[in-house]
């Protein structure tokens, strides 16, 4: 038996929900923006081959790769003596804010779980994904692994019974994402945030997030856009992302409805309900925010499917 799994890119936070909201991305041109992991039998132990556009940014030693570590964990937990050969196709840049480590971890654990006849149920597998991704990003937060695995827009619940649940999204929104080409460490970007917040910020954060979730259920796009604001992270991270503030202002002038940092950056996202405006925003970002040859941009919808096996 052999199989290949695709795990989509994701936006942590989605601006308004620091560590609590995340969404999976699907470029509208039909391309796949995410890592792939293939698994097959091997003679013994764990073998890992890494390929793909962003492979050379990963540690050269396979044992240091998180995909290798996921496989080793599975084999040990299930007490498997036979071997597995994995191939990681690394299609997302590391430290991009597009859930690159989540994509590798989710694809690997999903593939291993399928290969070994699903020893983990959905919630247990998701918790495992969070733990492994946390080894790379420096802390466990599910806002990338959850949408990457399950698709759509996911709200973190983090109760004993349920890690997260999906909330409705706006079908006619376009999410323009632009990765400028530099890499930023998630743990360093997390350190930029203060340990304590003013009461007024805490209230604004709660109000914005709850109003956004409410608006999503009501399908009230105007309300959703008016509260799609990041009071928790953006004020402390914006200046650490070269060109971000300039881009946000320019996108606002182009008529984009809201712009924010995807995860911990440097990728930015910008929302509109007009394809024409999305295309104008993408053209501006390609000329002014994206380093040619190093970065990229996509006009996306949300990926409703999440992680899946592909041919
Ligand atoms: N919620 C996380 C953060 C996402 O903003 O640090 C990045 O992994």
From TrEMBL:
Domain GHMP kinase C-terminal as annotated: residue spans: 233-288
Tell me if Transferase is a UniProt keyword of this record. Answer: yes
- Matching InterPro entries, A to Z? GHMP_kinase_C_dom (IPR013750), GHMP_kinase_C_sf (IPR036554), GHMP_kinase_N_dom (IPR006204), GHMP_knse_ATP-bd_CS (IPR006203), Homoserine_kinase (IPR000870), Ribosomal_Su5_D2-typ_SF (IPR020568), Ribsml_uS5_D2-typ_fold_subgr (IPR014721)
- E.C. designation(s): 2.7.1.39
Pfam families, from UniProt? GHMP_kinases_C, GHMP_kinases_N
Q: What terms describe the molecular function in GO for this protein?
A: ATP binding; homoserine kinase activity
Superkingdom classification of source: Bacteria
Q: Name one GO biological process term.
A: threonine biosynthetic process
- Tell me the enzyme class: transferase
Please give the pathway this protein is involved in: Amino-acid biosynthesis; L-threonine biosynthesis; L-threonine from L-aspartate: step 4/5
Keyword presence, Transferase: yes
Localization per record: Cytoplasm
| GO CC annotation terms, alphabetical | cytoplasm
Domain GHMP kinase N-terminal, residue spans: 65-152
Its catalytic activity? L-homoserine + ATP = O-phospho-L-homoserine + ADP + H(+)
| Record-listed ATP binding positions | 93-103
Entry coiled-coil feature ranges: none
Keywords assigned by UniProt?
Answer: Amino-acid biosynthesis, ATP-binding, Cytoplasm, Kinase, Nucleotide-binding, Threonine biosynthesis, Transferase
- What role does it play? Catalyzes the ATP-dependent phosphorylation of L-homoserine to L-homoserine phosphate.
What protein family does this chain belong to? Belongs to the GHMP kinase family. Homoserine kinase subfamily.
Family annotation (HAMAP family): Homoser_kinase (MF_00384)
The entry's protein name is Homoserine kinase
| Taxonomic source organism | Shewanella woodyi (strain ATCC 51908 / MS32)
Upper lineage is:
Bacteria, Pseudomonadati, Pseudomonadota, Gammaproteobacteria, Alteromonadales
């Amino acid at each position: 038996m052999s199989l290949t799994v695709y795990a989509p890119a994701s936006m942590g936070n989605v601006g308004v929900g620091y560590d609590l909201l995340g969404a999976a991305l699907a470029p509208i041109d039909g391309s796949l923006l995410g890592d792939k992991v293939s698994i097959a039998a091997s003679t013994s132990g764990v073998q890992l081959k890494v390929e793909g556009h962003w492979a050379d940014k990963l540690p050269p030693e396979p044992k240091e790769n998180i995909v290798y570590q996921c496989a080793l964990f599975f084999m040990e937990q299930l007490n498997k003596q036979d071997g597995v050969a994995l191939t990681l196709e690394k299609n997302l840049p590391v430290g991009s804010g597009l859930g690159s480590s989540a994509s590798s971890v989710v694809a690997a654990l999903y593939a291993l779980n399928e290969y070994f006849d699903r020893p983990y149920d959905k919630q247990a597998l998701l918790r495992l994904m969070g733990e492994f991704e946390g080894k790379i990003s420096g802390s466990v937060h599910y806002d990338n692994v959850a949408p990457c695995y399950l698709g759509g827009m996911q709200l973190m619940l983090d109760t004993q019974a349920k890690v997260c649940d999906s909330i409705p999204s706006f079908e006619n929104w376009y999410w323009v994402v632009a990765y400028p080409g530099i890499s930023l460490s998630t743990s360093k970007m997390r350190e930029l945030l203060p340990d304590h917040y003013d009461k007024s910020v805490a209230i604004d954060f709660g109000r914005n997030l709850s109003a956004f979730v409410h608006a999503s259920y009501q399908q009230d796009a105007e309300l959703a856009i008016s509260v799609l604001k990041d009071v928790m992270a953006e004020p402390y991270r914006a200046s650490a992302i070269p060109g971000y503030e300039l881009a946000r202002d320019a996108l606002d002038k182009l008529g984009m409805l809201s712009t924010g940092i995807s995860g911990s950056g440097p990728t930015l996202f910008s929302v509109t309900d007009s394809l024409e405006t999305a295309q104008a925003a993408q053209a501006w970002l390609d000329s002014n925010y994206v380093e040619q040859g190093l970065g990229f941009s996509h006009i996306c919808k949300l990926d409703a499917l999440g992680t899946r096996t592909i041919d």
